[in-house]
Amino acid sequence: MDPNDRARGSGTRPRRSGAGNTIKGPHSALTDYLQEIGASEHFRERRRAGGEAARQRAERQRAEGEAEAEVEAEAETETETETGRQAEDSADAALARDLHLEEERARRGGAESSRMAAESVAVAVESVAVPAGKGKRVAPARKTAKKKKKKQDSDSELDEGLNRGSARKGGRMRECAACGRRFLRRGAGEEGEEGEDVCPQCVRSRDRGAAPKPSAPRPSAPKPSGPSRRPRLKKAAGGLLEADARLTSLQDLCVRAIAQHVDRVDSLGDVSAPSLRRLCRIVSKMRVLDARTLGLFLGAERTAVELFDCTRLDAAALRRIVAEAPRVQALALDFCGRLDGAVLAAFAAGLRDLTRLRLDGAFLVRDAAWAGFFRDAGPRLRAVHVRFAGFGAAAMRALVTHCLALEDLRVSECTDFDDDCLALLAPPLTDAEEERQELERAERVRRIAGSPPITVPPTTAPPWRPLARLQRLDLARPHRAMASQTAQRVVRTLGAQLRLLDLSGFRDVDDAFVAHAVAPHCTALHELALAECNAVSPPAMAALFAAQGAGLLTRLDLGRCYMLTDAVVRAAVRHSGATLRSLTLNSVDDNLTRDGLLALSEARCPALEHLDLSWVRCTSDAVLEALLPACRRLERVVVYGCPDVTRFAPMRPGLQYVGRISDTL
Amino acid sequence: MSSSSSAVEQAVATTVKLASGDGFAFIVDKAVAEQSPTIKNMLDVTRGGAFTEALTNQISFPEIKGKVLEKVCQYLIYKYRYAAEGSTERVPEFKFDLELSLELLMAADYLDC
């Protein structure tokens, strides 16, 4: 059973006992989303590997369980003889007792012991059946026990995974067939009849003979059953699920009205910049940012144009930016898939004040177009953020040559960005240097001799100068493999001036990189992100923090570095605890324990505002209770995939939990 | 006297006062006001650390003008009235002036309604 299915399945769909576990479906947006937040391949691999170990452990425990069950079976047979073995109900009573015993165990001990109990039940039932000799009676009982055992077995394989926590202590959320309320059904209890889900209140009232009371406010219209029945207004963490209200919201109505009459809406002069930005965000969220509404956000006096969703803006509309907002200094276009090289060249020619550019998703722009852009606009640019574009070697070369005032560079998730591009940020290797010196010498000779200077053949590299002003370097998640050597050379060159270094997704950087490049050179770092750098071993990571003494880190991202240990967290906190504002330990689950997390509280991270502990299964309510008093400024705690963080987690004003299992649906 | 004052008290307990930035105040039922999730959270007394708004049943919106807030209240009543309808054919259209639309959009985005 996939964790995705469980997340999807624990909704309003009525489930038959046992059948709900096998729901499989097409790859949905939810699956994609879960992958994005960190439910990754790593966990599936681990579960597959863990399945073997679990099976072996099950074998061992079955041996132990049998020893225990023998004792129990003896106890059972003793009570059997007491009540009269020949009575019709004795086997059923024994089974009922066994089931209660198993239920008790489930409540007390968790899934593992309930598995043991279930096995012991199965063994006990078999051993009871033999002396009672009532094969017919016991067969259905054995079947239920076996079915329970099978269910528990499939659960047991998942015990290594998300199942381990308290939310899965043999309980499932069910919807009551009588009153429609949701309740938690544990193990075998609370069943009116086999297969029907009835909440405890309804069971009690049915037993008493009264009609089951409907819960308070129910809509008067009868709810249609089946697939047309949709969930009511559900607000999930972080607004991830849209409210499925039947009424169009006021925001919808307003945006539609604005979009329709955009020619008449010209009174945007008195709207302040943050409001305008918010308006643009709303309009983009509603997917109505197109050629008609674009005019709202452009104007001769605008210095910043930020469009969050340019999918409906074609090339002509994008050129309007040049025409209608020529003074813009900061241009940010997200989802600008329809932007092509010609438009980019128009930007370079038309926007003379442009200093900051962000283009996310401009996949139609090719290398050569980028090169032309940097040649024209490069010297003015101070910040360039490019994502998901065709940014390759020619573009990089042009950038390095022309954009010498660059302070902020982000090239992430570009398919053509490879190791050679990265190498361009570091001084070229010696043989190329020799070649260049040769050319220079030849050039000098010719000039002295009076003949016209030779043109540099295009195959040689232009003279290399470092990006001396570069302070923020973000090369997250490249699509090609990056060599650790190249990364080392880059960091050695630029490290001393960097305030932000993001090499997430550089899977091949290893201990040498951390020890010889980052530790000695990156002394002024404020933000460090080494997510997914799994080749760096935990001792090396800990040594990095220990070697640098007191640090100034405000943001540290070590997500998906699965192997990191408590020592790393402790070292990191010792290094930068006083200044750390954002810490991400997403999926750092293999070796992290409570002590590692409690290190955050011991060192008192007073400035910590954002903490991401998704998929770190040892996070629990108790750990959070210890953390909260020490981290007084904590505003946002992201806990996807932490089953032990329940709705009883400690709250305080200003604190927001994102991704708690109890928050969804 | 006591009966009328208790009636008043009862009215106070089930209503909220929404105050705009330019001095207007609107008194609506709590159930109506809670159609906006933002207001609902503000009025929620079961949170650890209830807001002042929950204790005094008064919410002020200094950034929202009176005209806009009036329209918002009308929308909240409209939503309360028609949200549980089975079909949308019988629900009348909610009208507002175009001049208000921008500010109404900002207010609606803030109140998430």
UniProtKB/TrEMBL annotation, chain A:
GO terms for molecular function: DNA binding. Residues 134-151 have a biased composition (Basic residues). The keyword Transmembrane does not apply. Residues 66-81 have a biased composition (Acidic residues). Keywords: DNA-binding. The keyword DNA-binding applies. Residues 1-171, 205-236 are annotated as: Disordered. Residues 214-225 have a biased composition (Pro residues). One of its GO terms (biological process) is SCF-dependent proteasomal ubiquitin-dependent protein catabolic process. Residues 111-132 have a biased composition (Low complexity). One of its GO terms (cellular component) is SCF ubiquitin ligase complex. InterPro entries: Leu-rich_rpt_Cys-con_subtyp, LRR_dom_sf. PANTHER family: PARTNER OF PAIRED, ISOFORM B, PARTNER OF PAIRED, ISOFORM B-RELATED. This is UV-damaged DNA-binding protein rad7. It comes from Coemansia thaxteri.
From TrEMBL, chain B:
It is found in: Nucleus. It comes from the Eukaryota. The gene is ELC1. GO terms for biological process: ubiquitin-dependent protein catabolic process. Residues 15-78 form the SKP1 component POZ domain. Belongs to the SKP1 family. This is Elongin-C. Transmembrane segments: none annotated.
